[in-house]
Amino acid sequence: MTDTPSSTYAAAGVDIEAGDRAVELMKTWVGKASRPEVLGGIGGFAGLFDASAFKRYERPLLATSTDGVGTKVAIAQRMDKHDTIGRDLVGMVVDDLVVCGAEPLFMTDYIATGKVVPERIAAIVKGIAEGCVLAGCALVGGETAEHPGLLDPDEYDVAGAGTGVVEADKLLGAERVREGDVVIAMAASGLHSNGYSLVRHVFLTQAGWTLDREVAEFGRTLGEELLEPTRIYSLDCLDLTRRTEVHAFSHVTGGGLAANLARVLPAHLDARLDRSTWTPGAVFSLVGSVGNVAQAELEKTLNMGVGMVAVVPADAADAALAVLAERGVPSWVLGRITAGTGQAVLEGSHAS
Question: Which NCBIfam families match (predicted)?
């Protein structure tokens, strides 16, 4: 009978002590992303949120959303910079919630990695917590899973889920949109978190650029441009709904501007959008020129510089623009709602 060495979890590649140290390192950041309704702290089996806050609602509707960051994480991993990717995650989740008028209340996160490096996990969670602060929601819990053999030691992926609440009679969407409404664009901070498979293919594979390449059009390196965090609009949108009339929002993510705006249009109306009202940032034009990507392909893959759209009555447009300007969100009249068949149509050419 041969002696077989005893097996351990650590020998299989899972380091529980590293996980515990990661939790200790992230506590400070999680503590900053809280709300008065949150009970308990990090380390419990479930996050607790005091639902008695809903008593002030006549008919509270809970909204929920879940998302990830896609292949943008590959840029963070190659640059060994992990403290902004969490803001992208929050933006992808909470700005889907606010589209229906819901106030984001809390989020949970999930990080899967090949090897738990406590400082790296803490940096990711730091970004998530900072994003939650920008969104006005709490980070009430999360999970870090070590998957040796499934992921390489330096690989990880992130996902999150969020919950919000909206009064039933204030629910926004297609049923509120009317012919003659004005479409207002809110500027994106950059690529946000969509289309990175195309962007990486163009710059890194086709062109052979490196992430430390200085790009004159960006005024910084390629990597810095690609890691620019997603703009988080939730507090801006909520302020807009409090201070003026809003019929609908559209979060511009995968599928581009037209496809996402069409999701909040009734079947008998169109949105006519004027390209001449804005000039997309340099990163969008460079993806097109360097990769020989057709405009139609760019527009159905990237946000083209518009991260969120509001549909408002014509007589509320000036007030909406003023609110957004006050909040530091670049915005402009993008188009109008007309009779149609439920499509968003881009017309004309971009301003040069």
Answer: purM
User: Which amino acid is residue 217, in one-letter code?
Assistant: E
Query: Which residue type does 105 have?
Result: L
Give tens-digit pLDDT for 121-138: 999 999 999 999 999 999
CA angle 162, 258, 251 (to 5 degrees): 20
Residue 201 has pLDDT above 80, yes or no: yes
d(CA 322, CA 311) in angstroms, rounded, equals: 15
pLDDT at residue 30, as a whole number: 65
Residues 6+ apart with CB under 8 A from 170: 101, 241
φ/ψ of 74, rounded to 5, equals: -65, -35
What separation in angstroms does the CA of 344 have from each of 9, 212, 259, 335? 54, 38, 7, 10
Contact at 8 Å (CB) between 188 and 231? yes
Q: Distances in Å between the alpha carbon of 152 and those of 53, 114, 193, 282?
A: 44, 5, 22, 34
Q: Which residue has the tokens 């302020």?
A: 239
Question: Which of residues 247 and 8 earns the better pLDDT score?
Answer: 247
Residue that has been written with the tokens 């990175």 in this structure = 196
User: Do 264 and 173 touch, CB atoms closer than 8 A?
Assistant: yes
DSSP tag of 148:
B
Q: What are the structure tokens assigned to 185, written together?
A: 């664009």
**b/e string for 150-189 if b means 16 or more Cβ within 10 A?**
ebeeeebbbbbebbbbbeeebebbbebbeeebbbbbbbbb
In the chain the first and final C-alpha atoms are separated, in Å, by 80
pTM for this one? 0.91
